[in-house]
Design a protein that fits this description.
Blueprint (H helix, E strand, L loop, with lengths): L9 E6 L4 E8 L4 E6 L10 H5 L5 E6 L20 H13 L5 E6 L1 H12 L4 E7 L32 H9 L9 H9 L9 H9 L3 E2 L3 E2 L2 E3 L6 E3 L4 H4 L9 H4 L8
Parallel strand pairs: 3-4, 3-5, 5-6, 7-8
Antiparallel strand pairs: 1-2, 2-4, 9-10
Helix pairs in contact: 2-3
Length: about 260
């Protein structure tokens, strides 16, 4: 199901060298580019209000990342590369749109994508803005400020730790408001209750557009002798955020040039 955009937002499909996906645009096409990178279990739709409040002189761009929204359903997430599949998609989109450099804004998982962009292509970032980003050490499975693993196989992270009931409700397109439904999770954890959005149905549709399966959300897993009994597998977005699949954080400290953060 396609989601209608707000007035002032234009949507079109863009095919890059890596992926075909829905991309949202607003602002001055000749202005300074700002690329918005959404978080887990959302899509570009979640950026629309922010894009519309940007001051004059900016060209706003938001993409549905692979595994989400209206991106190519065949484009799996190779979790063994961390979030590099997604950061490479952003660079490919910039190339397809003729954008040499851009401000990048990443939320949650999109913050993890932004960390990777900073490591791999800092010369293409005018600045990096991180909104509640996933740690550059990854999500789950680590125990301290240095990112040391709780277990050698990163048990406690990756595709096997997702709630299977929630994943099934996503797959079923459940729109009810019962406990642990996508609607209840969105309204309880995405923002502070009792707030609800005027676009609740559109935002819920965005959540339900998440691609599910062993190569998407949550991804695959392997059995582990360590608590809680599962460790990251190879495929899917949660394995892309697993700590054992992240690059050495020393790469982040050493980037040159260093964009404003």
């Amino acid at each position: 199901m396609s989601i209608a955009t707000l007035p002032g937002i234009k949507a079109r499909r863009v095919a890059t060298a890596r992926i075909s996906t829905r991309v949202l645009f607003s602002g001055d096409e000749s202005g300074t580019p700002v690329i918005f990178v959404h978080g887990n279990l959302t899509s570009a739709t979640f950026w629309e209000e922010t894009m519309l409040t940007m001051p004059a002189g900016y060209h706003c761009v938001a993409l549905d990342q692979r595994g989400f929204g209206e991106s190519d359903p065949a484009a799996a997430v190779d979790g063994a590369r961390g979030l590099a599949d997604m950061s490479d998609d952003v660079l490919a989109l910039m190339d397809a749109l003729g954008i040499d450099k851009a401000h990048v804004v990443g939320h949650s998982m999109g913050g993890g994508v932004t960390w990777r962009l900073m490591m791999d292509a800092p010369e293409r970032l005018l600045s990096a803005t991180l909104v509640a980003p996933v740690s550059p050490f990854g999500f789950g499975g680590s125990k301290d400020a240095e990112g040391n693993l709780c277990a050698p196989d990163a048990a406690g992270s990756g595709g096997g730790v997702a709630n299977p009931q929630y994943t099934q409700l996503l797959k079923d397109g459940e729109r009810g408001d019962g406990e642990m439904t996508p609607r209840a999770v969105m309204n309880s954890f995405y923002w502070k209750p009792p707030y609800t959005s005027d676009r609740e149905e559109d935002l819920l549709t965005s959540v339900l557009q998440t691609h599910t399966g062993e190569r998407d959300y949550p991804g695959d897993s392997v059995a582990s002798e360590n608590w809680p009994g599962v460790a990251p597998g190879r495929w899917g977005v949660l394995n892309g955020m697993a700590p054992n699949n992240q690059p050495d954080i020393g790469k982040l400290y050493a980037i040159n040039p260093k964009p404003p953060v």
